[in-house]
């Protein structure tokens, strides 16, 4: 199967898919054509890609699907974009998303919701978010791969709903310089593709220390991780008790059991495992991420860049309120919640408690993995596991109308979509969502210890 | 069925307490069970879900009691958030916050394992236990800094006000009301 699709073919098909599924926020009128002179085995020359519209590009706008950044054009490329251009990748366009990455349905965008292309003849279904356009661009075969961002599951959930691969590498592996911050302790650049060999090549192209990103994993720690790699046979796989829920999509268990049987036949060992802190992850996540979002989004005042109210800078004594009124409803809700969590009345009770519980979670993950964690100095459990397998979603994609109605009743209804993905985000672990069946929105995450991204990729490749 | 492992901060921060004979002390926390021997054991294990996220979070249950923050508290939050009061549906925000808080307030009842030794700053996904910087080292670091093109520090390459909707003579413009009439 060829690695690269024809750029001409993608451009020809783009307009009909765009009008049906609302995938892109902007389309590059002249995609790049750069020859990779080095011609290394990792070359991506001629591959076609899409970029989520919260990753800055100097050649066309970066809007975060928000009025606040409508028409904003960055003076520079994000490091990940720069590396792709150097590798000879054609960038087809910027993809739609939940505003500033806030949402799990792909419906909170000034450009309107992304429609799931797996259901062309049914009531319009959600794509999952927030990297909704990224997943749709891959599902429609418009691109070889897409770059998204994953804060609490924003690459993995839409990848699952689009029946494609979605990889969130270890936190700090890929540079976030030029990625517009939502929640900086969680934000990670992720890769979506239909082919594991493409995904792996993209990962290797981008997996580099970047001095421009203060949270980029240092060269020293990358070398330490490489040094820790040993052949582990047989590979030990864990099924986490706390991810076993009563309500799972119809058909999930049959496909799940079939995969487990395949693993046993391949000689892998399978173990039950309990990680009690997993249960606490949603409240931890929804305490920390809105607090970080409130801080990050305080910069949008309209003075230096982005949208600015043409009349006023102050209203009711509140600075920049006329400009900031242009944030969408979900973003405003999260800013308000975040400021509540950060204000003096709640600070000690909520924020610090959530941080400490996050430490407990990280330590529990350290306790069950065989591979060392170079961040925490965990030496690894010699009797521990190499891989965890975890469902990606507890639901199938519902209709856009139902999703919006449920969310209006209570925000917690949409937060629950993140229950299987948030634990790995909080611990910074590499996690790859893979479809259990072609063109079916049921996925499984393959999870490794921090830094052990290659084991995750090898595992998925070995069973694909 | 489960082996348990103690997380020991005295020997390795966040790591495992090793007694030298590849055996670990059991105190709770994460646990690995015995290897599954066949598919029947796996089927049985997966057929018994251990919790319901809806029940845990008290969603759609009768016990859910909502205590909305006061209207004044919401107005204060809007000010803190730089969002306008005019047009804001205070009651709707109160109810929404109440539902969000009933969700995240679960945190209050969860005990922190090893509370005394657990440092909130270890939640950051960066290397723990790095060497502390002092004033002298900071000064030394600054003294070696120089303009770096890799960081985009190229003289004359960028106009600071180039992206502003309003600017005058290379200055940003803030309107008169910004400095007056503030509460």
From TrEMBL, chain A:
GO terms for cellular component: glutamyl-tRNA(Gln) amidotransferase complex; mitochondrion. It is found in: Mitochondrion. Keywords: ATP-binding, Ligase, Mitochondrion, Nucleotide-binding, Protein biosynthesis. Transmembrane segments: none annotated. Its EC number is 6.3.5.7. The keyword Ligase applies. The keyword Mitochondrion applies. It holds the Pfam family Amidase. PANTHER family: GLUTAMYL-TRNA(GLN) AMIDOTRANSFERASE SUBUNIT A, MITOCHONDRIAL, TRANSAMIDASE. Subunit of the heterotrimeric GatFAB amidotransferase (AdT) complex, composed of A, B and F subunits. This is Glutamyl-tRNA(Gln) amidotransferase subunit A, mitochondrial. It comes from Saccharomyces cerevisiae (strain AWRI1631). The gene is HER2.
């Amino acid at each position: 199967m060829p690695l690269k699709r024809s750029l001409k073919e993608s451009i020809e098909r783009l307009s009909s898919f765009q009008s049906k599924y609302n995938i892109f926020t902007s389309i590059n009128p002249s995609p790049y054509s750069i020859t990779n002179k080095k011609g290394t085995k990792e070359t991506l020359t001629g591959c076609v890609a899409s970029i989520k519209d919260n990753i800055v590009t100097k050649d066309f706008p970066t809007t975060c699907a928000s009025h606040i950044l409508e028409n904003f054009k960055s003076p520079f490329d994000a490091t990940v974009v720069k590396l792709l251009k150097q590798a000879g990748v054609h960038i087809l366009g910027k993809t739609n998303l939940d505003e500033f990455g806030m949402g799990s349905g792909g419906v909170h965008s000034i450009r309107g919701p992304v429609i799931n292309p797996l259901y062309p003849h049914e009531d319009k279904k959600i794509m999952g978010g927030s990297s909704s356009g990224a997943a749709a661009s891959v599902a429609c075969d418009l691109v070889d791969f897409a770059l998204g961002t994953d804060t609490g599951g924003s690459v993995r959930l839409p990848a699952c709903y689009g029946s494609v691969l979605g990889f969130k590498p270890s936190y700090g592996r890929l540079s976030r310089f030029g990625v517009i911050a939502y929640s900086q302790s969680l934000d990670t650049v992720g890769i979506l593709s239909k082919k594991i060999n493409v995904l792996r090549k993209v990962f290797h192209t981008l997996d580099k220390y970047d001095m421009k990103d203060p949270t980029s994993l240092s060269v020293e720690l990358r070398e330490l991780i490489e040094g820790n790699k040993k052949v582990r046979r047989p590979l030990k796989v864990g099924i986490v008790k706390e991810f076993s829920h009563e309500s799972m999509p119809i058909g999930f268990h049959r496909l799940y059991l079939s995969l487990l049987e395949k693993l046993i036949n391949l000689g892998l060992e399978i173990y039950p495992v309990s990680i009690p802190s997993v249960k606490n992850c949603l409240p931890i996540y929804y305490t920390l991420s809105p607090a970080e979002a409130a801080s990050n989004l305080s910069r949008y005042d309209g003075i230096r860049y982005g949208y600015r109210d043409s009349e006023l800078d102050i209203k009711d004594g509140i600075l920049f309120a006329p400009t900031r009124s242009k944030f969408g409803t979900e973003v405003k809700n999260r800013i308000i919640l975040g400021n509540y969590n950060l204000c003096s009345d709640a600070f000690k009770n909520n924020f610090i408690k959530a941080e400490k519980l996050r430490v407990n979670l990280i330590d529990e993950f350290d306790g069950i993995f065989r591979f060392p964690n170079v961040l925490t100095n965990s030496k690894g459990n010699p009797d521990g596991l190499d891989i965890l397998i975890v469902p990606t979603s507890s639901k199938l994609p519902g209709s856009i109308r139902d999703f919006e109605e449920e969310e209006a009743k209570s925000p917690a209804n949409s937060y629950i979509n993140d229950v299987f993905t948030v634990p790995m985000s909080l611990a910074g672990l590499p996690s790859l969502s893979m479809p259990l069946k072609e063109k079916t929105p049921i996925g499984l995450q393959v999870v490794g210890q921090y830094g052990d991204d290659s084991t995750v990729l090898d595992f998925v490749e070995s069973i694909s | 069925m489960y082996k348990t492992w103690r997380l020991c901060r005295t020997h390795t921060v966040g790591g495992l307490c090793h007694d030298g004979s590849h055996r670990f002390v059991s105190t709770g926390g994460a646990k690995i069970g015995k290897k599954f021997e066949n598919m029947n054991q796996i089927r049985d294990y997966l057929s018994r879900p251990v919790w319901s996220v809806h029940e845990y979070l008290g969603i759609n249950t009768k016990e859910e009691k909502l205590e909305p923050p006061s209207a004044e508290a919401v107005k204060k939050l809007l000010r803190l958030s730089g969002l306008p009061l005019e047009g804001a549906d205070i009651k709707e925000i109160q109810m929404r916050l109440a539902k969000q808080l009933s969700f995240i307030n679960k945190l209050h009842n969860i005990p922190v394992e090893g509370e005394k030794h657990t440092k909130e700053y270890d939640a950051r996904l960066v290397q723990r236990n790095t060497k502390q910087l002092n004033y002298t080292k900071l000064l030394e670091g600054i003294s070696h800094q120089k303009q770096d093109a890799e960081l985009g520090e190229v003289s004359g390459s960028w106009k600071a006000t180039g992206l502003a909707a309003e600017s005058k003579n290379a200055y940003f413009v803030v309107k008169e009301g910004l400095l007056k009439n503030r509460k």
